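Here is the promised in-class demo. Please do not try to memorize the tokens; focus on the logic of going from shape to residues.
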């Protein structure tokens, strides 16, 4: 089973979670060998490209909207196999996005101009995971 988009239940739970303050979004991404633009033919490049190249197009399109929502990419790194985890599972890219709040993330994710380019993400990704994280306050000690 693959995961490309949040379910309605997961989206509702996130939106009503009561999280306050900054939220980090841990993304694990596995790319297609060849990007699949069948869902968004208007974005199809002149020649076939890899999923990784399609994701690069997604990032290029997305960064202005992410920055406008006071969000940022905190980490972007190549993946591979697990050191601890299933031997047959791999992730090509790990990405950590930070947003000021759940509300700013939801505003970013529902921006029509941003959504106009999300087809690059869909074309790029074979499978993904997205885990919202909230920092734990540490006490002196």
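The designed amino acids, position by position:
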């Amino acid at each position: 089973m693959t995961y490309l988009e949040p379910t309605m239940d997961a989206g509702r739970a996130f939106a009503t979670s009561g999280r306050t303050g900054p939220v980090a979004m841990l993304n694990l991404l596995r790319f297609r060998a060849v990007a699949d633009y069948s869902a968004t033919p208007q974005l199809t490049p002149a020649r076939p490209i890899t999923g990784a190249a399609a994701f690069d197009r997604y990032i290029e399109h997305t960064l202005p909207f992410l920055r406008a929502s006071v969000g940022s990419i905190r980490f972007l790194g190549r993946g591979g196999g697990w050191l601890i985890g299933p031997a047959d599972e791999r992730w090509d890219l790990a990405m950590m996005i930070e947003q000021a709040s759940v509300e700013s993330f939801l505003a970013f994710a529902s921006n029509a101009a941003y959504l106009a380019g999300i087809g690059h993400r869909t074309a790029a990704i074979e499978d993904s995971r997205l885990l919202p994280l909230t920092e734990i306050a540490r006490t002196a000690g």
